[in-house]
Design goal:
By secondary structure, the chain is an alpha/beta fold. It has 7 helices and 28 strands.
Length: 364
């Protein structure tokens, strides 16, 4: 794919959700700001959007809104101009887009890129926008194919790429193409969404436009795509970025088996691989094994501990002999010796697990 720059393209970034599926990671931090491959998740989206010609982005915020401006400021560090629009009460996806559009500067016939703040995608944004403009569509939806579309809303299209329906989750989906969460709107279509009201683009705006005969296009491709809404997907996304399975201009180091941030102390006798991230000032002692995991800043993994496909929060401690696999340990928590945290286990921030408090096997 070739990146197709589109000058003066503006974007809206939807970052208002509470990220409940990622708790306890999101109790104090919005999902789009979670450290992912060494930087806040949104840093990857911002850098990628800029590579396709986006220069101005409006954040549609709600949950812990102040943290976004604290993290990114005016956007100059990314070569962007950033604005922040906050919903006092959640307005749904359509309401959030309409609210954020108050800060746009483009005209009624111009394209507006709308991104979801929890998606990693390798698709050609420039080509999606160019297709939208060339076809004079009302909306152009990025579509991706998944193995199990029953978990998503599916989006059938005709031979010309026109979306014929926008179907909610169903046990018998008519296609494996789903809404991938990246849209191009013609500005006037956003302005037609009722202001200040709770509106869902998926349940109201898209079906209403299709029913009314407007041109809603599907832009389908088979590039990398991931919704990072669950702990397992979040870990996978970070891992894939470190391993180079998805390129990101924001990655703060070379791709490889692991990424160690400044001040990290990794013993030469520790084994770290699988696209793991070792946070700033984190310590991984001799004999510890870390595979495909995200270790937060200032955390400690003691000698002989094993951490696989897991997240260890900032300042947390994993004692010698502890085993983590597909687990989440919150900030500042302590996992004592002999604990086994497997199969989706979650430890809340600050919790202290004494020796052998949680076991999935009887032998010690």
């Amino acid at each position: 794919m070739t990146e197709t720059p589109l000058p003066k393209l503006e974007a809206i970034l939807l970052v208002g959700g509470q990220g409940t599926r990622l708790r306890p990671l999101t109790l104090g931090t919005p999902k789009p700001l979670l450290p992912t491959a060494g930087v806040p998740f949104l840093a990857h989206q911002l850098a990628r959007a800029r590579s396709f010609g986006v220069r101005r982005i409006v954040f549609a915020t709600s949950y812990r809104a102040e943290m976004f401006s604290e993290a990114f400021g005016d956007g100059s560090a990314f070569g962007l101009s950033l604005e922040y629009m906050t919903e006092e009460t959640p307005l749904g996806t359509g309401g959030a887009i309409r609210n954020a559009a108050e800060a746009l500067t483009c005209g009624p016939d111009d394209p507006v890129l709308v991104l979801n703040g929890d998606i990693l995608s390798g698709h050609d944004i420039g080509d999606q926008v160019a297709t939208h403009v060339a076809r004079r569509a009302a909306i152009t939806l990025h579509l991706t194919e998944v193995d199990d579309p029953s978990r998503f809303g599916c989006v059938p299209t005709d031979a010309d790429g026109r979306v014929t329906a926008f179907l909610e989750k169903t046990p018998n989906p008519v296609t494996n193409r789903i809404n991938a969460g990246c849209y191009v709107f013609t500005r006037s279509v956003i302005d037609s969404i009722p202001a200040g009201e709770v509106v869902s683009v998926e349940r109201e705006t898209f079906p209403g436009l299709i029913e009314g005969g407007a041109l809603v296009l599907g832009y389908a491709d088979a590039s990398y795509w991931l919704d990072v809404g669950t702990p397992a997907a979040f870990v996978r996304g970070s891992r894939d970025l470190v391993l180079g399975r998805l390129a990101s201009p924001a990655l703060p180091g070379p791709t490889g088996d692991f990424l160690a941030l400044p001040g990290a102390e990794v013993s030469a006798e520790a084994k770290i691989d699988g696209g793991s991230v070792v946070g700033a000032r984190a310590v991984v002692e001799s004999g510890a094994q870390v595979t495909g995991s995200v270790l937060g800043d200032d955390c400690v993994v003691r000698a002989g501990a094993s951490v696989t496909d897991s997240v260890v929060g900032a300042g947390a401690q994993i004692a010698s002999g502890a085993v983590l696999c597909d687990a989440v340990v919150g900030d500042g928590a302590v996992v004592g010796p002999g604990n086994e945290l497997l199969a989706g286990s979650r430890v809340w921030p600050g919790v202290v697990l004494p020796e052998c408090a949680v076991r999935f096997s009887s032998d010690i």
